[in-house]
Amino acid sequence: MNFEKGFITILTGMYSFQDCIHFLASVRKFHQEPIIILIDRVPPIFYPFLKAFKNVILKPAPANENTVLASREAKLALYATSQFQKTIYLDSDICLLSNIDDVFEALETEDLLLTEDVQPNIIKATNLLRGKQQDILADVLPTLQAVGLPLQEDSIQYNGGFIAFSKTEITAKFFDEFKRYFEIIKNNQDKLLLKDQGAFAAAIATVQPKLKVLPPTYNYLSKWKEAYNIHEGIKVLHCTYPYRPQYAKDVTRSVYTRIFDKLAPLFLPNQITNPWRTK
């Protein structure tokens, strides 16, 4: 069944399960559209915790022992797995702080809506390469170009935690190119970390979709709050639940989430020690 609009998130493994519960609670506070969860390495016995929220659709994510790689490949499959004409993808460690219907409305005229990374300049994206960041700054762009990514000095690094897209021929082509360039990332693990921003930027450079860059209030990473200079209210907070400010925890607070949080330490692994985060 296809729908006019809806949300997608990714849950690969149990480390982010608590994040996902609160993600669902935050979306349901402001929206009633369907929510697709691309899911892998979560025992079916836990599915009812997710399905307790109305209109949640579980779909298999690409299976992989490395839950980070599974998550990356699920992101490549967003276009193919979306049942919506207008899709808002959000990482599962995101908390909505307000209604974002304006994003759906903007997809009437745009192929993609994105937010820039905290460090948007691709030439300074040391986070994509292996090695000590202070030693590899000059190597970033030459390395990315040498492996085959068509990036230039003015290329932008976007944060993949927020991606809104409409179903068009252009976005279909964009996701095809995104997948192709990510294969380059996977095949150059001696030089590059298993991140998708370089492939994402390369796909944008190749396809040149109609895109709108939203302000950081739509993807506010509280870990990097010192890097922002904003005066508007935050709409989308990007922060894993254990580190989330209390005002955001209050947004998803309910009898259900309070009971879940009490029980979570008994059956969930500690997501802060997730070994795949360093891969």
From TrEMBL:
> InterPro entries, alphabetically?
Nucleotide-diphossugar_trans
Q: What is the protein name given in its UniProt record?
A: Nucleotide-diphospho-sugar transferase domain-containing protein
Q: Identify the species of origin.
A: Tolypothrix tenuis PCC 7101
The upper taxonomy is: Bacteria, Bacillati, Cyanobacteriota, Cyanophyceae, Nostocales
